[in-house]
Amino acid sequence: MGLISFALRGNYKRYWNDLKKVSEETGKSPVLMFIDTALCTVFIGAGLQDYLIYRFYNKSWKERNTFCTIGFMDKATKILSPLKWSPFISNKLAFHKNYAEFTHRDYVNYDDGFEGFEAFLEKHPTFVVKPQIGLGGESVHVATREEIGDPKAFYEKSKNENTLIEELIVQDPRWAKMSKRSINTVRVVTGIVGDDVDILCAVCRFGASDSIADNIHSGGCCARVDLETGKIIGDAMNMKLDRFERAYDGTPYDGCQIPYWPEIKEICTKAARVNNEIHLVGWDVAIAKDGPLLIEGNRGPGFDLVEIPTQTGAKWMLEDLIKRVKAYKKAQGK
């Protein structure tokens, strides 16, 4: 991504208004912060949102350089999770096929024809509809057999629009109560070199309001997870940097135990080995009533989920993984 094209993507009018709000809170000049933002783009590949969500206006250059900015993530992803593997893992229908051992739910396979869809409806009159390719929980919704009207027409439209139709997840009641309506997930980030898998970090994600999506870019919040105990560390935060001490049902986030934590680590470790050419993956794990399952894998997982709650950089994790991957490939003669 070139610096010019990167810079042109920003909504500068909205960003200027955001800087004025920061100015009211901090007393810092919005003009100087705007100039500072430009410098961050040039020297550390930071985007407009990076400057805000990481509070770069309050951080030194040494601190700023420890964060996974959008520019750094773009370069790291090209090395760790090459674009050629996107159809293998990023397409949600392909993900079901390639990671069938871990998804544990029915879906409509268009290779089975309309008869397969009819059989699916008989078993699952309420189901989830989502784009096969999409980020941030965009356009994900629940539908029912009664709502879709003519099943044949709905089937053809869904097939033509590359829509994924899958079974609705019934969450573990201990986990479902944490938000009003969303499927709450655990994002587990793995790094693999050869056959060696490391769990780099993990966060919990919870939905807001009536949304079924827990994505932080769609109004949700996130909180860090202790990798040893599977307990949440500290409060949850959203993209506006609002802090939340308690979940929807009143449960304190800090110290909350994630159900099935050993099993979650196990399935993510096994899933990482399905394709060890994808060295970096962020696995979205749902906790169903009978255990964890994979919703999807993200070959370029954003580290804002990890860095926002604690306001500390995680760039070192990826720098270390890149060094190990390069050393491994050199040893393999690749």
Structure described in brief:
This protein is an alpha+beta fold. Helix content is about 40%, strand content about 20%.
Describe this structure in words.
The chain is α+β, with helices and mostly antiparallel strands and 334 residues long. The protein is built from 15 helices and ten strands. Strands 8-7-6-5-4-9-10 form a seven-stranded antiparallel beta sheet, sandwiched between helices. The longest helix has 17 residues, at 315-331. It is globular and about 60 Å long. 36% of the residues are buried. The mean pLDDT is 92.
Task: Walk me through the topology.
Blueprint: H1 3-8, H2 12-26, H3 30-44, H4 48-53, H5 61-64, H6 70-80, H7 86-89, H8 92-98, H9 100-103, H10 113-123, E1 126-131, E2 141-144, H11 151-160, E3 163-167, H12 173-176, E4 185-193, E5 196-206, E6 221-225, E7 232-237, E8 243-244, H13 261-272, E9 280-288, E10 291-298, H14 304-310, H15 315-331
Antiparallel strand pairs: 1-2, 1-3, 4-5, 4-9, 5-6, 6-7, 7-8, 9-10
